[in-house]
Write a structure and sequence with these properties.
Blueprint: H1 4-7, E1 17-20, H2 29-37, E2 45-52, E3 57-59, H3 63-78, H4 85-95, E4 102-110, H5 116-135, H6 141-144, H7 146-160, E5 163-175
Parallel strand pairs: 1-2
Antiparallel strand pairs: 2-5, 3-5, 4-5
Length: about 180
């Protein structure tokens, strides 16, 4: 992934470098930062937006929601991705020689009656990660049963009076700096 900039034909300096949900995949996110930041004009904003699954929770517990979130984390990590890049993004910025970034955190949170959108989001991610779950022995399609998953989770959330929080989304930005 560190050759992305070259492969995209980024030959001239850019007014900004912005990427979303990328840094969770390379083994060395700082190298990715360096490769992309090298194509930014001095002082141009470097902006990344990453996920962090440490924020997923249900209170009081909704067991199916919690289990599916654990499956998603396991599928990401066993596939070689980081499920916690969002909270590691500041360290990746500075390891790449960029200034410490400004950070912003957002998370979708919903009370029981309004939780369906959060549950659909988690179901869609689980559906996407389903093949990795099966490949790594985390969960089989029948366990996931994506067609009924939202209804099953929502029934638990309603019955338990559960508030659900989806993964964290963390934005980070800093100006590009180049060696003098």
């Amino acid at each position: 992934l560190c050759v992305v900039a070259a492969e995209l034909g980024l030959s001239s300096p850019r007014a900004a470098v912005w990427w979303r949900f990328l840094l969770q995949f390379p083994a060395n996110p700082a190298a990715m930062f360096s490769a992309l930041a090298a194509h930014a004009k001095p002082g141009a904003p470097i902006v990344f937006h990453e996920l962090d699954w440490s924020g997923t929770r249900s209170t009081p517990p909704a067991p199916t929601y919690d289990r599916v979130c654990r499956w998603c984390v396991a599928a990401l990590e066993r596939s070689g991705a980081s499920a916690h890049m969002g909270l590691a993004i500041a360290a990746a910025f500075t390891a790449a020689g960029l200034p410490e970034p400004m950070l912003r955190l957002e998370a979708l949170i919903a009370a029981p009656k309004h939780a369906r959108g959060n549950l659909e989001l988690i179901r869609n991610i689980a559906r996407t990660l389903g093949p990795a779950m099966a490949e790594h022995g985390i969960a089989q399609p029948a366990e996931l049963d994506a067609d009924t998953l939202v209804d099953r989770m929502h029934n638990e959330v309603l019955a338990n009076g559960t508030v659900v929080t989806a993964h964290l989304e963390i934005g980070a930005w800093a100006p590009a700096q180049h060696p003098a």
